[in-house]
Design brief:
13 strands, about 290 residues, Rossmann fold, 7-stranded parallel sheet
């Protein structure tokens, strides 16, 4: 299939584009940045419409997001513009290109409270979550497939450090870190997420779907299990509480998702959380068994 991917040069896009190409899809990478395969003015709906007319894609996959939770709290207007306003511009273009199906990536941050969470029971607790939820509502109006995700894995970008990068690099260099034992999630490895997106591309089903690993665990347990798989020392790890951390925005404590609806709709079994930890560990080990 032909895919136009907005936000293609970010943390997820830098991995997803290549994975989809390996699976036989034709991918056009779009971004505001100079030097992009297709440079877009995302504040101008006519620019997006021209891109659709030029590429004639089957799908538009939107990865654009302002994900710095504290930055969203400091600047809610910008957070809305990036996390929801861009969807309004995309929607304008899609109304004039009705054959193009939108897949929009959202976040598990829309949840809090007792998990595991089903799609209908949202509880946004900060500006980031509120604006992402607003973006979902706009995307839904255009028949989109909305995927609520959390993903882990090694970053391909020099200026972007992922959760697993931070854990692995800190422990390798014996830097002290704190991992929270009261924040729970059910992340997928980026490659697992890409494989699931591929399934969603083929069916083009409208609606909102949780997309996470089977099971869930605290971020502390995730980090310690990852370290154990890599044989890294954990004596510089402090297990602490997010409630004592000095962060501007409130963080949800339980984001574990029930992804049965995705599995049923798209005919697949999502991987277990321990599989995703193993897959994350493999990102940092060469074929000879040495650290990359």
């Amino acid at each position: 299939m032909k895919c136009l991917i907005t936000g293609a040069y970010g943390f997820l896009g830098s991995s997803l584009c290549g994975l989809l190409e390996q699976r036989g899809h034709k991918v056009t990478r779009a971004s505001r940045r100079a030097g992009a395969q297709l440079q877009l003015d995302l504040d101008n709906p006519k620019s997006i419409l021209k891109a659709l007319e030029r590429c004639n894609p089957d799908l538009l996959i939107n990865l654009i997001a302002m994900t710095d939770v504290d930055a969203c709290e400091r600047n809610p207007a910008m957070a809305y513009q990036v996390n929801a306003g861009v969807l309004e511009k995309i929607g304008f273009a899609l109304e004039r290109s009705p054959s193009v199906h939108l897949i929009h990536l959202s976040t598990d941050h829309v949840y809090d409270g007792v998990g595991s969470h089903v799609e209908s029971r949202v509880a946004p607790s900060n500006v980031y979550a509120i604006t992402k939820l607003a973006g979902e509502k706009i995307a839904e109006r255009h028949g989109a497939t909305v995927l609520r995700v959390n993903f882990v894995g090694r970053s391909r970008l020099a200026d972007c450090v992922s959760l697993t990068d931070w854990i692995v690099n800190s422990l390798r260099h014996r830097r002290e870190i704190t991992l929270f034992d009261d924040v729970f999630f059910s992340p997928l490895h980026m490659n697992s997420l890409g494989e699931a997106i591929d399934k969603a591309m083929m069916k083009r089903m409208p609606g909102v779907f949780n997309l996470g690993a089977q099971g869930g665990l605290s971020k502390a347990e995730f980090g310690l299990k990852l370290a154990n798989r890599l044989g890294l020392p954990c004596d510089c790890v402090t297990v602490g509480s997010v409630t004592t951390a000095k962060m501007l925005a409130r963080r949800p404590k339980n984001m574990i998702m029930n992804s049965k609806l995705f599995e049923h709709t798209f005919g697949c079994d999502l991987p277990r959380i321990d599989d995703e930890i193993a897959r994350s560990a493999s990102d940092y080990i060469s074929l000879s068994g040495e650290f990359l």
